[in-house]
Amino acid sequence: MTDPFTILGIEPRFRLDLERVGARHRELSRALHPDRYVDRPANERRLALSRAIEVNQAFGIVRDPVRRALALLARHGVSVPEGSEPPAEPAFLMRMLELQEELAALAAQKDVSALERFIERAAADEASAVEALAAGFSELERSAPSPEVTRELIRRIGELRYYRRLLGEASAARDDID
Amino acid sequence: MVLLDIFDPKAPPRPIGIDLGTTHSIVATVREGRPVPLSTCDGTSLLPSVVYYSPEGGILVGRAAAAHVTREPERTIQSVKRFMGRGADDPETKKLGAYRFVEPETPEAAKVVRFDLGWTRPSAVEVSAEILKSLRRSAVDQLRTVGGAVITVPAYFDDAQRQATRDAGRLAGLEVLRLLNEPTAAALAYGLEKKQNGLFVVFDLGGGTFDVTVLRLEDGVFQVQSTGGDSALGGDDMDREIAERLLATLAPSNARTPELVSLALELAREAKHALTEREAVELDVHAPGAKPARFSLTRVEFEAWIEPLIARTERACRRALRDAGVSPAEVDGVILVGGATRVPRVRRAVKELFGKEPLADIDPDLVVAYGAAVQADLLAKASDEVLLLDVLPLSLGVETMGGGVDRILPRNTTIPAGARSTFTTYADNQTGFEIHVVQGERELARDCRSLARFSLKGVPPMPAGMARLEVSFDVDENGLLHVTALERTTGRSQTVEVRPSYGLSDEEVERMLIDALDHGEEDLELRRLADARVEGERIVLATRKGLASDADLLTPAEREAIERALAALEGSIRTATAARTIELAIDALATATHEFAGRRMNRAIAAAIAGKAVGEVEQSVAHAAGIEAHLADKGAH
Questions:
Q1: Complex ipTM, two decimals?
Q2: Position B283 pLDDT exceeds 60
């Protein structure tokens, strides 16, 4: 799988100006979208389609902090297969468990405003986790990744994943009430 | 004023846009830079989406067909769009209605609903094709030559419904350039004139489907942020609310003949329209077999009955906004599409939800067809002035061993999109594999819409768990799914045959085409030849354009090879008597230009990355009028 940063022609960094990445995505889409190849032979249309898909996939990866982080690690030769992350710290897991229980209670009560407050807090937690990841990666930009740095980054990615899963479940619970 | 339409024999075929609506269908084209509706066989812009099959074997479309609805409701198919892509046991097919369906004899047959009309048993695809044929004939009458067509579909239409629409187009003899989502079409119609960057919501409530779409327009790119809706909610449901109560007063449930039901639905529709203008309405009911009665209804009562429907639209709107990560206050404009948005309660709901008056100055019945015509025109010109980036409306997943869903493409993913999943065998020497693809957001496969079962055949025999079946799920710009599979363990990538279980195969469409034409095979061959000529000419033109702009990417030898293949294609277009000859020449040219195409694409990508396109984009935004200016013109406040 070719590197998404290369496909989009952008700097391989964690902190990105997503507005500009969006503009780049639009420009590339203009060049490759199948609608522009309607009058070409089938093989050209197929080529354009597969490259358009690539560009959309790359954009999807870069837009998502977790996938962006994984793609950056992949560039350094570090691959993190799903489920192989080191276990999170006990304190963190306890916190997650408490939050899950709180969410379950709110969902059962169908308390919309409380759920929305919960979602706000979860979103703030997620933002902090993203920030922690960004800080971790700026270290990486200065030097090649040592095993400790890599491990720490993977741990932070793991935490971000937990927060996102929680946020997803909270949003789904809120949707269910509708 | 144009008194005579001078026919220019060298003019290229005109592309058309078609809104294949639940209650009305429209065909439009772009003339002198603006979309205009074409006259249908009824002499109007709106063709009722009604098809009548007479007992003697005749087929009528439009107003003439609608005239039969009260006396012969079973033979007069209305709102066939509701049945597209649906099976016999789909709840939609069981709703209140007057039709007789063919009892399916096999599970295979149950996949496609068929109307039982005695001498014919058409599927929804074939009924829709009759409407499209009529529109095509009207277009040919007025434009002489018709080019490709863009047909619109609700954004929420799933893969089976889209395939069915495309098949109907093919059956009607149309070259379907693209399926376009209706809300995106509406946004295109509004947005192109009044280009202004911003966030817009399209609220599309038609006869049978509801779509809400959140779009961002930025520098000529219409990018859908999220989409939602309900593919079984529309003006027809409002009619049903009234009709149910009307029927209850007229007759007990066991005395409901199809004629009575049809009459009730007709009256309901009239009442609904009347209540848009007036606070109360009174209907004289002359039901056969019952004494004349008076049915009165107030707007207040009607609004109470449709409250659950309104609530469903509000829910879908809120969800789409959440998916897009925006609040109602951030929305710059709400576009209304579909006749049902004329209902005052609906307009009030929109205004309350978004806190602003919606935009409705383009006729809500025509706006989608206008957008389709504009898109068809853009495609015919291969223009890059405007780009539509749509999204997948429903998550795509694969059923796992335990009945759960493995989500491969989440909803609101920008299309075209692709994902790859690797599967393996569970038994020794297993050579076949079944993949059940579902669409939907639920956790269990059985709660999602079953889309297709793909059978993979030709897996090389090996111990269980060793095979690496890499399956690619690609969704193209039409929202249509393509599945390919490769077996990787054998060292060489071996393509595995994939066979979908829904939709019409190419052979079946061909057989239908042959049946439909009076002279069968012979006519089909002629049509194929004509199609091949059109395609060949288009490719010649495009290739010549490419040579003119990017010839520096070729060595003299390569250029010569392309010129030779071009000449051969041009020759075959002139002299061929069989489509196959031209198709082979097209293939030969494709081979010769393959490398060239790749290099041109790389050049376009490099230009995009270098930001070369930015200057051009600034130009097009600079001479845009802007929606605010437009509103100022209209004196709106």
A1: 0.80
A2: yes
- Judged by CB atoms closer than 8 Å, whether chains meet at B414 and A34 is answered as no
The shortest C-alpha distance from B102 to chain A (Å) reads 37
Q: How far does the CA of residue A43 sit from the closest CA of chain B (Å)? A: 7
Residue A56 scores a pLDDT above 80:
yes
Residue A24 CA to residue A10 CA, distance in Å, equals: 9
pTM of the model: 0.82
CB interface of B with A, residues 296-335, below 8 Å = 315, 318-319, 322
What is d(CA A27, CA A46) in angstroms, rounded to the nearest whole number? 19
> Of B72, B126, B167, B182, which residue is the catalytic one?
B182
Half-sphere exposure for B184 (CA within 13 Å, toward CB): 32
What is the rounded average pLDDT for all residues in chain B? Answer: 85
| Model confidence pLDDT, tens digit, residues A64-91 | 999 999 999 888 888 877 666 677 788 9
Which residues of chain A make contact with B178, given a CB cutoff of 8 A?
35, 38
The CATH T-level fold of domain B235-307 is Actin; Chain A, domain 4 (3.90.640)
B4-41 confidence digits (pLDDT tens): 455 666 677 899 999 999 889 999 999 988 899 999 99
| Residue B577, φ and ψ in degrees, nearest 5 | -110, -5
Candidates A42, A48, A39, A45; CA nearest to B539 is A39
- Residues 144-173 on A with a CB inside 8 Å of B are 171
**Residues contacting B635, CB < 8 A, separation 6+:** none
B396-505: which CATH architecture?
Sandwich (2.60)
The answer to whether B218 contacts A40, with C-beta atoms less than 8 Å apart, is no
CATH number of A4-63: 1.10.287.110
Q: Which CATH number fits domain B517-612: 3.40.50.2300, 3.30.300.180, 1.10.10.10, 1.20.1270.10?
A: 1.20.1270.10
Shortest CA gap A118–chain B (Å)? 15
For domain A90-177, the CATH class is mainly alpha
